[in-house]
Amino acid sequence: MAQQVEKMIPVKKLVWALAAAGVLGAAGGALAMRNAKVMPVSVSDSAATAPAQTGEAQVAAVTTPLANAAAPAANFTPPPAGMPDFAQIAAAQGPAVVNISVSGTVKTRAARVPQIDPDDPFYEFFRRFGVPGMPGGPNGGGEGGSREIRGQGSGFIVSTDGVILTNAHVVQDAQEVVVKLTDRREFRAKVLGSDKSTDVAVLKIEAKNLPTVRLGATRDLRVGEWVLAIGSPFGFENSVSAGVISAKGRSLGPDESRVPFLQTDVAINPGNSGGPLFNARGEVVGINSQIYSASGGYQGLSFAIPVEVANKVRQQIEKGGKVQHAKLGVMVQEVNQGFADSFKLDRPEGALVANVEENGPAAKAGLRSGDVILGFKGQRIVSSGDLPALVDQSLPGDKVDIEVWRNGKRETITATLGDANEKGAKLAKAGGDADGDHAKLGLALRPLQPEERRQLGTRDGLLIQEVGEGSAAARAGVRPGDVLLAVNGTPVQSVEQVRGAVKGAEKSVALLVQRGADKIFVPVRIG
C-alpha cells in the first residue's frame, strides 16, 4: 500500500499564500437570514487583500503523496446498483466547465469625517497621516475615488461557438473577464448581458468546436436524488463535489422571489458561483449560486438556480440583449393557520393578497385585497413564494387564469400580465406571530375624520387609538395609529361591524390594517 506524508500547514499561512496568489478573497453580496447569511459564492476581493488576522491559528491537513510512491492499483469497483457514476459524469461533462477570472475598478465614496479647523493642533496630524477625506489623504479631501476589484467564479459552455452561462454577481462591475478552459487555453470573454434579479449572466468567447454540457429539466427532479457540482472553490479549478437535492422551490426572501431555488447539501464554496449542478444522468439542472452560512464557507446548505430560469434569461439575451419580466401587480403574504381559520380554508396554503397596485394587471382583472390565490396557470400555489416565481416564468402580455378563494368559494379570474421593469410582486411582512389566546381583540377604535380619509385615500376604515396590553391584537403585532380597513376581507366603517365580525369568528380573524403606506393582513387568534 502506498505510503503518504501528511503536512500540517497553519491556516494563517495557507490563507496568506492563497491571497498572495490572487486565489482567495472575501465573498460579498450577502443576504442576511437571522444569524446566518445566504450569500453568493464567487470570490471577489480588492488588490489590497490582506491576510486574516483574527482568532487563534488553526491547522489544515494537506496530504501529499511521496514522489517515489507506488501508483494506485488499477482495480475499479463499479458503484452499487442505483448509484450514479460520478466519475463518468465528471469525465464526460467536466471539459465544458470553465474557470472565470474578473478584474476592474469601482468608484468609492469619500469617507465622512468631522470638519477640523485648520488652526486646530490635530489638523496637521490628520493631514500628514492621510486620514480619508482630509486634504492630501485618500479620496483627495472628499471627492471619492476608486478601488480595484478581482474575483473568480465558474461557468459552463452551452454552445460549441462559445456561449457560456454563469452568475450575474460573478461578472458584476468587471471591466475584463477571462475564461480558462480545462485544456489551459484562455480567452477574453464578452458579457452579452446579465439579469440581476435572477442572478444569471451570458458570456461569449471567440472559439469553435468547444465541448458543451447537456441541459436537463427540474420538473421531474425529486427530493433525495443525487446531484454533482463542478467548479472552482477558492480557485481550485474543476473540483467535484456531490450530494442530494434537499428541497425544491425554495424562496430566499423578497429580493430573490423570482427564483424557485433548488436546495442541496452539495459542498459549495466561494468560487463555485456560476458552476453547473448535474443530475445523475449528467444533465445540468441548475447553476450553483448561493450558500447559507454564518462563516462565509459551506455549512451544509447550498442553493442553485433552476436551469429553466437560466435558459429563459439566456434566450432573451441572445435574441434581444435584454431580459423582460412579467408583473401581476400585487403584494402577497403567507397564509398561516390563523389566516386559514379566518378565511375558512381547508389548510394553510396559497398567497394572500395584501395590496393591489392601482391600475395594475391584477386590479384590471378584478383581484382585490383579501383574495387568496390558490392557483396560477393551472399550477397550485402552496406557499406565497410560489407565486412570484410562476409569474416570472411568463412573459409580459400573457393571459393567465388565476384561481382565487373569495367569500368562502373558489373563483377563476383571467389577467393580462404587465411588464415588471425590474419590479416584481413583493412579499408583505406579516405583522406578528398571532399566538394570543385572548377572546377579545382589545382595540379602542374610532371612525376616521373626513380629512383623514382624504389623506389615506379610502372610504373605509377605523383608526386604532389604543391596543390593550397583553391583548390578542397586541400579541399579533397591531399598533396604535394603525388603520383597520377590513375584517376577514370585509371592509369596515363602524365599530359595530367589527364587533359582529369578531363575534361570528370561531378561532381567529384576519385584520387588514394600513400602516403608513403599507397594507398588511394580521392574523389574530381569539379562540
Mean pLDDT: 77
What structural class is derived from the secondary structure elements? alpha+beta
Largest sheet: 8 strands, antiparallel
Shape descriptor reads elongated
- Strand tally is 34
Q: What's the quaternary structure here?
A: single chain
Spatial gap, N to C terminus: 71 Å
Number of helices: 11
| Beta-strand content estimate | 35-45%
List unreliable stretches of 5+ residues.
1-35, 44-74, 138-142, 422-439
Proportion in helices: 10-25%
Radius of gyration: 28 Å
Task: Explain this structure.
The chain is α+β, with helices and mostly antiparallel strands. The chain is about 15% helix and about 35% strand. The chain is built from eleven helices and 34 strands. The strands form six sheets. Strands 4, 6, 7, 8, 9, 10, 11 and 12 form an eight-stranded antiparallel beta sheet that branches. The termini are far apart.
